[in-house]
Amino acid sequence: MRSMRMSPQAARIGASTPSFERHLVQAASHPIVFGAPYSVYVRAVRLALEEKGVPYELVPVDIFAPGGPPPEHRERHPFGKIPALEHAGFRLYEAGAITRYVDEAFPGPRLQPEEPRSRARMNQIIGILDS
Ligand SMILES: N[C@@H](CCC(=O)N[C@@H](CS)C(=O)NCC(=O)O)C(=O)O
């Protein structure tokens, strides 16, 4: 069996499964948002992080640079857009996917309704605003 050192958080609550450990490590790593403050899509992601109380880093990316978005950004986002997120080795783009991930991957207040109809209404409103 693989030996694992338990984190203090896991030890405190008596949890030691690898998946729980992984979850703790992920939640403890600060996500990086690649984008620019003017972008409403980047703002949506930052709002989700702020509401959850998750510390994060905003790394500026100039998508309108002469010659196009920097090549390393195309590695993060195939369409060269912002935002993109990096978290504990996990890369994600599309503001809707990122905000939902932030809500589900981190502790803190839940940002989405549990109840199916309320959740559907939320998705409807997001769809209207995003079209
Ligand atoms: N569907 C994308 C839209 C992101 C988007 O359009 N971002 C703008 C900045 S506000 C952008 O990167 N535009 C550059 C481009 O379209 O090439 C999302 O939800 O993340």
Briefly, what CATH class?
A: Alpha Beta
Instruction: Summarize the amount of helix as a percent range.
Output: 40-55%
Find the count of extended strands (DSSP E, 2+ residues).
4
Annotated CATH homologous superfamily? Glutaredoxin
Radius of gyration: 17 Å
Q: How many helices does DSSP assign?
A: 6
Low-pLDDT segments, ≥5 res: none
Architecture per CATH nomenclature, i.e. the level-2 architecture: 3-Layer(aba) Sandwich
Q: Termini separation (Å)?
A: 51 Å
Beta-strand content bin: 5-15%
Fold and architecture overview:
The structure is a single chain. With 131 residues, this protein is an alpha+beta fold. It has one domain (31-130): Glutaredoxin (3-Layer(aba) Sandwich), CATH 3.40.30.10. 47% of the residues lie in helices and 12% in strands. The chain contains 6 helices and 4 strands, in the order H-H-E-H-E-H-E-E-H-H. It has a 4-stranded mixed β-sheet, with helices on one face. Strand 3 and strand 4 (90-93) form a beta hairpin. The longest helix is centred in the C-terminal third of the chain and has 15 residues, at 116-130. 16% of the residues are buried. The structure holds glutathione. Residues 39-41, 63, 80-83, 94-96 line the site of glutathione (GSH).
What brief labels describe this structure?
131 residues; alpha+beta; Glutaredoxin; four-stranded mixed β-sheet; 4 strands; binds glutathione
